[in-house]
Amino acid sequence: MRTILWVATAILLLGAWAGAVGADERPKRLVVATWNLEWFFDHYTGDNYNDVPRQQSAPSRGDWDWKLAEVARVIASLKPDILALQEVENRRALVMLCSKLKKEYALQYKFAYIEGDDFFTEQDVALLYQSGLTHFGKYEQSKEMHASKVYYNINKQIVGEFEWGPPEDRERLTIFNAHFRAMNDAAPIRVRQAKLVRYWLDEKIRRGENVIVLGDLNSDELAVETTPSGEIGTLLGLNTADASDDLFDTLAHLADKRQPTHLNGRQYDRILVSPALLNDDPARTDLVFRRVSIRPDLVIRGQVQDKDHRDVYWKIPADERDVSDHYPLVAEFDFVGPETSPSETR
Fold first, then answer.
1. Which of 19, 62, 87, 270 has its CA 20 to 30 A from that of 259?
2. DSSP 8-state assignment for residue 282
């Protein structure tokens, strides 16, 4: 039994009404990105209940202002239509980020956020978006699924449903943003988390819908080292005989398939897309994946790339401190229609 908790009933009702008359206008190109902000926690620790988040929070108002400004600068440089975020403290941090983007860069972003269940780090995930969102929520396991021990709960996740275009030519997209369990010895847990995501999304993928799974998956496997039984291979669907429902790891589209998304040289961050996003339907306007990039240039500051951030982040001089230990991973999609010429999608 699949269970999904949708939030904000008013949004659902508005979404249903919009489906009858028209969704948001399609952009010519859709930019979807994921970025772990690395402890995007403000300086106020009165709402943090554990030692770890209190220790990792910005030490002062000035430090928080620096972090907020640098994160906004990176996002303004990317201008993604949809941005999946990890390691966000709370709703207030997102309100301040959207306000900064509007005031400093004239960029209008909204956000989808649900408080997660990671009460140790108190980190959450979110979706920033410019248009298209009809509703959002999170998935839950049934009692039987919990009892089976096949799956492992994902306490930092959010799923968003997006729509663009007129009723007769509507394009829909499901985005699942996840932050998997960290640490090397947690690989078996991540495999079970990957099985859970596949259970929740398999039906959509098999129906040929547009699905993106993205976020900080914390896998030590590089894209060129993916195995069918590993956490990424399981998430892709490589562990089953049917290849028609396999997701595509966009990192495999890079010229340098070993290019890291993290300062330690690993590829923790992923954007995985369903088969529907790889092939153009000549009979209708649809989304088609074009390219992917990793943007350390926007995150690395000063003369030397940071080598370590653990417990020393706020001790690094501000003019040398990198914004995050993760780099934005950015995928570009075109809305390709029956009359679209090749030059229009380049």
1. 87
2. T
Domain with 126 in it: 3-15+28-345
Residue 160 within a domain:
yes
Number of Cβ within 10 Å of residue 225's Cβ equals: 14
Measured CA to CA, the distance from residue 85 to residue 317 in angstroms comes to 25
**What number of other Cβ atoms are within 10 A of residue 291's Cβ?**
13
Longest CA pairwise span in the chain (Å):
58
d(CA 193, CA 183): 14
Whether 48 is covered by a domain: the verdict is yes
What is the distance between the alpha carbons of residues 34 and 80, in angstroms, rounded to a whole number?
Answer: 9
CATH code of residue 134 = 3.60.10.10
| Domains of the chain: total | 1
Planar angle of CA 28, 269, 147, nearest 5 degrees = 110
* Cβ proximity of 237 and 228 under 8 Å: no
Amino acid at 167: P
172-207, pLDDT tens digit by residue? 999 999 999 999 899 999 999 999 999 999 999 999
pLDDT tens digits, 110-136: 999 999 999 999 999 999 999 999 999
pTM: 0.93
22 domain residue, yes or no: no
The Cα 16–Cα 23 span in angstroms is: 10
